[in-house]
Every structure is written in structure tokens, then in C-alpha cells.
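User: Sorry, what's this?
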Amino acid sequence: MGVARREHSGKRSGSRSAKERMLDAAEQLFARHGFDGVSVRDITKAAGVDVALISYHFGGKRELFAAVFQRRAEILNVERLALLEHVRRAALPGVPALEEIVNAFTHPLLERSARGGPGWKSYFALVALVNNSPEWGPVLMTEHFDAIVEKFIAVLREALPNCPPQEIYWGYQFLTGALTLTFAETGRIDKLSGGLCRSSDLDSVHQRLALYVAAGFRALNAAAQPAPSAGSPPTLPVAPASSAASATATSVARVASVASVARPARTKARRRLIHRKPTGRR
């Protein structure tokens, strides 16, 4: 009863509920200091609520951490799935380009991080932290993101039907590593590039990431294809139709030119033979 009264008092102090304020405060603090660097009292102090409300709403700090991670994951998954289905349907009866598939998977994340406000910025920093954690990554990433990742990989396999599955999974591994570093926004690229690039410039990331990743998937696919057997004849490159036609026309022109030069010479030789006087004995 006392907890309920304290929560009700918290609601009067602002438009957001005590539970929402705890989630917001925990998100910001966990993103900045990690799970072990934040205490329950740190969170309740930042949220302006009583310590007992953590237990009342979540059960404990670990449960609060999981609730913070889940809250925005659901929003992202709905957006990414809708975009992935859109590009897939738009390409029927064919398959979408790899760049479109990668964009459907990454753009909602980059857009939210760039323009979603401080809460989203903290959330993606937390995602980067979790994805790098052997303790949290296999649990939270699996629980909240594996379903959308499996759909993404299924569409990739439709676009690359001859690509061995392990190459698709390695390509995804490299993609998620690039996203993790992007969301961390460490500023390292700022120093390495002498200011030419900024880790916070997520619009520039969006312009380049899908191109880079799609090229990587294509390269993995090409490298995995079987080499020609030793007994098979070498495969000659096939020129495009326009190039082949041009080459044929050039060859015909050259033959005609040689023929036109040779024809008068042969005619003159025959005339000399006809008009030459006989030289035999009488």
C-alpha cells in the first residue's frame, strides 16, 4: 500500500509515470556505465522515485536491465519487418537487390539513432554494449532480435540461391560487427581521418553501409563457387551482344578491304599474261 502511494505521488510530479522514468534513467545510465557500473540507488535517484519501486515494478536490477532492452526492440522489429516485406514484394516475381535488403535491415536503426532523440541514442549505445558482451549478448540479442535476423537471412538466401549457408551467416556476422561499432560512436574514425569522417555522422554511414555489405556478400558468394574440374575445357569470356556484333562488323570490314586491294592486282597480272608474246622455239 505504501509503495502504491509513493508511485501515485510520483505521477503527480510529472507527466511520465514512475515506471517510465525508471526505464529512461536506467537506459541512460546503463548505456554510459554498463550493468555493473550502475546501482539501483543511482537509477531511482535519477528517476526521482523511491528505491522500493524497482522491486515493485521489475523485481530487481537484472529484470530492469532486460525490460530496458525489450522496450525499444519491439518497435524496431516491427519497422524492420515491414520494410523488409515491402522491398521483397516490390521486387516480385524476382528478388530484391542485396543493397535494398541490407537497407531494410539497417536503415530503421540508423534513422532512429540519428533523429530519434537522446533516448534512442542511449538505447543503441546499450545495444552495442550488449552485443559485445558474452554474458548478455547470447541472451538478450537472441531473445529480442533472432526472429527478425532469421527473416533477413531467409531473404538473403533467396537473393543468393547458390551461396552456401555458412557464407550468408559470416556475412551477417560482419554486418552486425559494423553496426555495433557504428552505434558505439567512439570517435576513433574522427581521429584516424583527421576530421574527414565523424562517427556521429550516421547519414554518411547509411549512404555507404549497404553498398559495402552487399559487395561483401557477392564476393563471399563468388569465392564459394566450385572451380572448373581439371578435365573440363577452359571457359572463354563471352562478350556482350553489342560488343560481339561490333567485333564481327569490324572483321567483315577488314576482309572486304583486303579483298578490294587484292582484286585489281590479280586482274592486271592476268592481262599481262594474255598480251605477252610466246617465247618458245619455232
Remarks:
- Residues 1-59 form a domain with the Arc Repressor Mutant, subunit A fold (CATH 1.10.10.60).
- DSSP finds twelve helices and no strands in the chain.
